[in-house]
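Weekly modeling sync, notes
Attendees: AB, CL, MP (scribe)

Item 1: holo prediction request
CL wants a bound-state model with protoporphyrin IX containing FE before deciding which constructs to order. AB pointed out that an apo prediction alone won't tell us much about the pocket. Agreed to run with the ligand included and paste results into these notes for async review.

Input as submitted:
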Amino acid sequence: MSTSESARRVWRWFTLRENCAEDNTDLFARLATESPVVHMPGLWVVSRHDLVTKLSNHPAFTMVNPEFPAEVREANPDFTAFFARSMSVRAPEDHRRLRGVLAREFTGRAVERLRERITGIVDGLLAPLRDGAPFDFVTEIAVPLPSLVTAALLDLPEEDWPQIGVWARGLLAQLGKSFPGSAQHADPISVAGFRALRAYVAETVDARHGDGKDVVSQLNQAADAGLMSRDEVIDMVLLLFMTGVDTVTSGLTNALTCLLTRPGDWRRVQEDPARWAGPAWDESIRLLTPVTFGARVAAQDAHWGPLRFAAGDVVLLSFAAANLDPRRFEDPLTFRWDRNHSASLSFGHGAYFCLGAGLGGLQAELTLRRLAETGVTLTVPPGDLSWRPELTFNSPAELPVRLGRSPAAEVA
Ligand code: HEM
């Protein structure tokens, strides 16, 4: 594929959504090497590792606050208003203030406190699947796990978890539907549903005062100290359902896909799950990066070497391509156990670096450990997997597997 062909392919991918329901690893690898900067009127797609890193943390570029189409705004105005107020798209000084408060809830120690509860949730989800019947890993594990973990993180009562799962799926479907061309994999949350979710969160926030150690109480204490408003506490809690659910779904699915299609590497995890599940996660989501792009807007005219950005230009930072840039990762398409992942862009970089990277990693580590102990096999050839038809997520839409060790069924 020539340089202009790969640039054309990315253009068709964005404008016509052509080929987006596929494993786009090949496209990302080619973007990094052949078309590291694609420029269309008002829009840049940047794929070189050093440029993505630089622009992710450049003060002239801020997170895009998307202008939703009129029909989306009219269909669910409460949702779009909430999105426009959420931390990541706020002005840089508000973003820094709110991020500073939230970051305290995601320290290594805070996340580690959830280890036992997450193990219990993983075991609870796996228990009915132990009869060895085939099932879809995405539906049964990767979708419910992160919303249950978010509910545990927020210390919400277990009897509410099924309803929370329904709201979370609807919220994500609404988010997906709000961008033109995105796919639908669940019913978007209705106006009434969003109001009910917000009322539930508001009630929880009001009930958690005092010196509690849970995330909601801590956010309330930040509000009492004048660091944020009550409405910002509510929006922050809602934001966790938007940022911490679909990302983990895609990440877990990619990690398992990556490992089950590389039997030698999966065997290593099975030999010593406690030691290898973590490193396997890091390398799997570098190779198959779940969140493909971050979006920024140039707040002012800016230049970087020969690149001239005009104020208002949108810049898509291709984390998935930059993670396959051979200038940064030697032999980038090979799964290697000896890599240093500090430069991996799976969780972004700089000012907007993912606050939940540790929590996502803990969910993955505990799930992969259990699956390695139990045994799990893919029940279809990798080429038959269908992929999420979305631009921002690159992961299988379904992952048919069965639990137990049955070498005959293993896909070599
Ligand atoms: C495998 C799992 C995950 C992946 C791959 C992932 C990926 C990302 C990426 C790439 C960004 C940066 C986007 C950009 O720079 O444009 C981000 C931001 C963020 N993530 Fe995650 N994420 C994951 C899990 C989580 C979890 C579990 C939570 C919380 C419960 C979370 C909360 C956030 C928040 C709050 C931000 C915004 C940070 C800010 O605006 O400063 N993420 N994530």
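Recorded for review: The two ends are 29 Å apart (CA to CA).
Action items: CL to compare against the apo run; MP to circulate these notes.
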